[in-house]
Amino acid sequence: MARALVNLAVGTVVFFLLFLLSQSNPSTSPPRLLPPPHHGARPAMVLPLFPSSKNSSRTFLHSHRHLLRSDSHSSHPNARMRLYDDLLLNGYYTTRLWIGTPPQQFALIVDTGSTVTYVPCATCEQCGRHQDPKFQPDLSSTYQPVKCNLDCNCDSDRVQCIYERQYAEMSSSSGVLGEDIISFGNQSELVPQRAVFGCENEETGDLYSQHADGIMGLGRGDLSVVDQLVEKGVISDSFSLCYGGMDIGGGAMVLGGISAPSDMVFSYADPVRSPYYSIGLKEIHVAGKQLSLNPSVFDGKYGTVLDSGTTYAYLPEPAFLAFKEAILKELNGLKQIRGPDPNYSDICFSTASSDVSELSKTFPTVEMVFGHQQKLLLSPENYLFRHSKVHGAYCLGIFQNEKDPTTLLGGIIVRNTLVTYDREHSKIGFWKTNCSELWERLHITGALSPTPSSSGKGNSTESPTTTASDGSPHYDFPGKIQIGKIILDMSLSTNHSYLKPQINKLTEFIAKELDVNASQVHLLNFTSEGNSSLVRLAIVPSDSSTYIYKETARNIISRLAEHRVKLPDTFGNYQLVQWKVEPSTKHLAAVGYYLM
Fold it and tell me: Which N-terminal residues, if any, form the signal peptide (predicted)?
């Protein structure tokens, strides 16, 4: 999440305290781990791989219709979701959740170190400007506040449950608890579910300035999304994350069980030791040689913690010094250079190639060994990051955790690795793979939309949006079609009578956001649907052209479908329900559907 690599929770709701009371020291809340500050301590604070836009917001801290089936031993469905953004450029990965009826979309940082999911509330005057509009409870017909009770902290009027989170880098989030329907996107086998979440009334620090809307808590605790879904009996007690590799970003996430690949490497995950996901690291090997360390070095304090919200990896001092010495010995022929930030003593090397696929020819392999000699092979992209100022240079992404004896493994360690948090069986699995091809490698195929069907209108044929080889949506147009018109059906959460006098302004804003002339956007239909409005628009070629380029059409459709079009709050939230292209000659039409 947008937090210093791991956060320190000081204020928690009683739901989480109930978990802590079962631990050996119930009188205090467990501190969140805090790696040492350095330029790499970018905000470590969620699905097929989807690279970030080059213009996506970056924040730096100094200090993811055939669906993936559940585990073969379980009848539970799962939620297959996309991950967005980039670990090192953005400092986090996000996924998309839809809250309410009609759904309101949010980009949430996936964080295994947090136990609550929260988004900015419409009433929040101390919240930053984020990727999506604030959540508006009044626009959701299914929203209910969580009323004050014995199992929660209450507001000063003892009317509603509240939550508070304070983080080690001095950012914080606080607000009220609400309950509403959570939707997981059109790749999800799991139907929308009611869940409790935080509706923020105040943000500070990096939570205020980050581009992402909020946090999706995947840690252990009663307010965690995973715990709530498991408690309802709708998913098995497991979830998986798959982060993209160096220079790619994005990834995939699954809430619920999946069939583990036969060669997945597992480590025992102690569910009692702490609320974090702790694994049993025993040894580290560099270039096939074991570091001369007592295994207990990885068992200090909280042991070895795996945290999706942490960017890099942090070792206790003895382990880091041994690792550093082994790496330097293997790379004594490489030129060592200064790091990108003069304030920090990064260990960086200049190489002759900037091709990630060539790194293994220069840098040694590293192995992490768990109990029963289960070995996780780390390629160079799992312990290096690119030097931001020198082409072809790389720096170590593993650091000393100051004097803290905890071993902290962040997202860099598991790039291009499917990580399964099998909480039911107290183990975490690792499977090296190309996360951009995850579904294919798990033998999952199919499209995102309904199967093709005849429209019954002449030569028109409905053609679904498909999944490209990298897992991202792919907008297909048949044959050598020259596009003469794009038809867009949109649902807006704004009341029809309110929107009617502003409909022309709406088309003007859409034209501006889509980078087309206002004269190219035509209103075809405008109707009411309950408290929402349905709008049908047509995008036509400019006056200087007889057709719309396919790439332009794909860009228009994808920007709307993926909610990259930003409209003023007065128009509410929107959903692209259906798109259709019509040829300027006698070609087939292509149609796509977007399900909430």
Answer: 1-24
